[in-house]
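explain this:

___
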Amino acid sequence: MKKRTLALLLALVLCLSLLPVGVLAEEEAPAADETLAEDEAAVQAETGDEAVVAASENSAASGSCGDNLSWELTGTGVLMIYGDGAMYDHEGTSDIPWSDYKASITAVELGDSVSSISAFAFSDCANLTQIIIPDSVTAIGNCAFAGCTSLEYVQLPSGLTAISGGLFLGCESLTGIDIPESVTIIEDNAFMLCTGLTAVTVPDSVTSIGELAFGSCESLTSLTIGSGVETIVNNAFNDCISLTSVYIPNSVTTIEAYAFGYCDSLTTVSIGSGVTLIGTGAFAECPALTTVTIAASAPVIRAYAFGEDTSLTSVVFRGDAFTAESTTSSIFENVTATVYYPANNDTWTED
């Protein structure tokens, strides 16, 4: 029952729902010197934005990006945003005021009174390497940094409450991220295809990890899930092929379909006492998985939850017998393992 293709198709659909075509397709960016050499008339003719102006030799372009916010791109590739309040909302990349200069942006500096970053604000800035976001920022829109393939360092603000959908999608040079304790939700696709990400700590403040939030983070080897997480949504860590062990804290009640499916290097899984549902294929197609320990009492386990885990030899239950929504054989399809359960517990039978 191979389902990797289905998972990848789902990932594509979710990405398309978050991203405009410009984020998903590779386009040949204009050379930096050509872009920065455009005069005011040429820029205005192409963008139709009279706020965009060509500037001096120390400033490539500038304009407005909020009711009380201005932006300026220096000749050295630093995009500065200053003033008070929120950025204008954007529905895609085409109406971002610095969209013609993305190839030239290497760093972003935000003033201490900026309160929000709009959706798609810096998406596809392929040469952006770092950004420090001041604590004044409390909201960052979907896909704000998606496709920033050279982004290596981000400092998130201490008051941020959500890692929005697709926020760092495809940021392949990002190797680590400090998620603030203020964050309560990590939304769909937030770190999907961050192929350089090696370690993640989900803080105790987070209650939900969204669909494909860390999907295909193929260098991820270290994962700590905080004690506040209640739900791990479909495919959240699907295809994290370097992840070797997973501990699900007692706070988690639901592990949805294929949450850890196709994690090729996963060898041990420990599931806490609070889990009531282990979804379809939750740990399926993990060929290196040898040991699973389930502390939860009487969880519902759906079909194929551990299917095709061909190295699985030991499944240890600490509580009452599980409830199979299908057959036990379908839960452990093509698996030969010894099941251990508590002695003198009447909920268990030899069957």
Summary: DSSP finds five helices and 24 strands in the chain. The first strand starts at residue 53 and ends at 54. The helical segments are 4-18, 21-24, 32-36, 40-47, 328-331. Confidence is low (pLDDT under 50) at residues 1-12, 19-57.
